[in-house]
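> forwarded from #structure-qc
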C-alpha cells in the first residue's frame, strides 16, 4: 500500500470513529483532498485509492492539473480566495466553490457559468473567528449575502465554509464549529453543507455537523511551498 493510500485509510477510520461518536452516518461526511502544491501524480495516486473530490487554492496550478488528469472523472472544488479576474475560469472549470465571501464574486460566477453545465455549487466563507488575515463574510452580514446569492441563476447555494483560528483546545474547536452550524441553521434556507475541519480538528468539526472535511497534510504530507 502506498503512503497516500495508507493515509486515506487512516483518515477514513478517523472520520468513521468521529461520526459514530457523534451518532452520525459516516457516509454523510465527504473527504475533500486539499491538493495545492502537490503534483498531478499524487492526485492520481489518491484517485486510485478511492478519492474523487479535490480542492485547489491556486487557479493556474489547478488548471494545469485538470489538463494532466483529464482522463479521470474527478470533481474539482475551488477553495482559495477569489479575485474578480479569476471568476470566469473558475465558473467554467469547477463543480464547487467553497470560498465566496462577497456578492460581486457570486454575481460574476453566476453570469459566467456556462449554460451547458449544471449549477455551480456554492459555499459562503464565514470569518467565524474575526481574524483580520482571513477571508470571509462577517457573521452579521451573512443573512443578506446568503439571500442574495440564493436568488442568483446558475448557482446552487449549498451552505457555509469556515477556517476557524487554529487551536489545539478541543473545546475551543467545537465552539467555533458550533457557531458555524448555528449560523447555517439561522438562515432558514434549504442548505445541506458545512465545509469545515482540517487535519488537526476534523473530529471536532464532525461532532458539530461537518459534511466536508478539507484534508491536506494528513493525506499528502507536509507541503513544500517552494514548489509552484
Amino acid at each position: 500500500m502506498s503512503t497516500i493510500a495508507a493515509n486515506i485509510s487512516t483518515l477514513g477510520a478517523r472520520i468513521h470513529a468521529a461520526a459514530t461518536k457523534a451518532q452520525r452516518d459516516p457516509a454523510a461526511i465527504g473527504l475533500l483532498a486539499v491538493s495545492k502544491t502537490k503534483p498531478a501524480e499524487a492526485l492520481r495516486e489518491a484517485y486510485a485509492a478511492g478519492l474523487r473530490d479535490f480542492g485547489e487554492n491556486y487557479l493556474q496550478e489547478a488548471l494545469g492539473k485538470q489538463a494532466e488528469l483529464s482522463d479521470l472523472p474527478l470533481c474539482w472544488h475551488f477553495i482559495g480566495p477569489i479575485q474578480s479576474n479569476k471568476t470566469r475560469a473558475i465558473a467554467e472549470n469547477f463543480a464547487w466553490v467553497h470560498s465566496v465571501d462577497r456578492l460581486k464574486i457570486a454575481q460574476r460566477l453566476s453570469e459566467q457559468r456556462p449554460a451547458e453545465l449544471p449549477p455551480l455549487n456554492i459555499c459562503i466563507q464565514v470569518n467565524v473567528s474575526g481574524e483580520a488575515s482571513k477571508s470571509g463574510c462577517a457573521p452579521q452580514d451573512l443573512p443578506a449575502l446568503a439571500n442574495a446569492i440564493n436568488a442568483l441563476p446558475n448557482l446552487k447555494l449549498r451552505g457555509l465554509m469556515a477556517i476557524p483560528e487554529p487551536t489545539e483546545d478541543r473545546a475551543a474547536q467545537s465552539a467555533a464549529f458550533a457557531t458555524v452550524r448555528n449560523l447555517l441553521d439561522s438562515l432558514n434556507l434549504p442548505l445541506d453543507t458545512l465545509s469545515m475541519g482540517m487535519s488537526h480538528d476534523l473530529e471536532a468539526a464532525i461532532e458539530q455537523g461537518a459534511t466536508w472535511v478539507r484534508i491536506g497534510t494528513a493525506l499528502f504530507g507536509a507541503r513544500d511551498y517552494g514548489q509552484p
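QC bot note: Strands lie at 30-34, 53-56, 75-78, 96-100, 120-126, 155-162, 193-195, 212-215. The chain has a mean pLDDT of 95.
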